[in-house]
Amino acid sequence: MTAREIHTQISRPTRDQISALSRLPVAAIVDALGKTGALTPDLKSLTPHVVLCGSVVTALGPDVTVRRAAIDLAQPGDVLVVAGGGARAHSCFGGATARHMQSCGITGALVDGMVRDVYELRTLGFATFARGTNPINYRYPVGQEEGAVNVPVSIDGVSITPGDVLVGDQDGAVVVPRSQVEHIIATTQAAMDAEAKKWEAREGQSLGAVQKLTDAGYRII
Predict the structure, then answer these.
(1) Residue 125's domain spans which residues?
(2) What is the pTM of this model?
(3) Structural domains in the chain (count)
(4) How much is the pLDDT for 145?
(5) What are phi and psi of 177, to 5 degrees?
């Protein structure tokens, strides 16, 4: 991560690719990624039933001006990732910002920290992931000297690069690297189709689990 840099150009997936990922469950995407890319369970959806999906723009640190610079550089269909360091003492995102972002076509936000105005976020239907809520926001500026826009960030060991795709639903959130988007779409859909056929064939049938455990040495009483 490089402080005090603003990168204005990033490579994004196509709108069709983002739309395809938005229709896939996060759990299935994580499976296709080999159980990688999932963000910490501490980052939860605060807007139930609203899917978060879009190409990532990043704001390093909690400062409001840095965050607004990222918003100004975002394009319709993007998702804002605020790498706020997981701080819980203050919120660094709220309803007014979400309302403006929505008016610009930005589809959601993931905040490594706390947010407020949850009722407004839910009323807007603005997809938001965060560690929790706190009505006390920062007195800005804060950490501006260490901020950056559209640089790679890391959240609990998961790397996020601008232009990656972030997908979030009620199970959690996952980062799909830009270079793997097309492959993950195809792999995830194929696995889901195969799983559906497998369970369709098992309808009303024994799963054979008791016999398997018997064969493994379980004592049947």
Answers:
(1) 15-202
(2) 0.94
(3) 1
(4) 85
(5) -55, 140
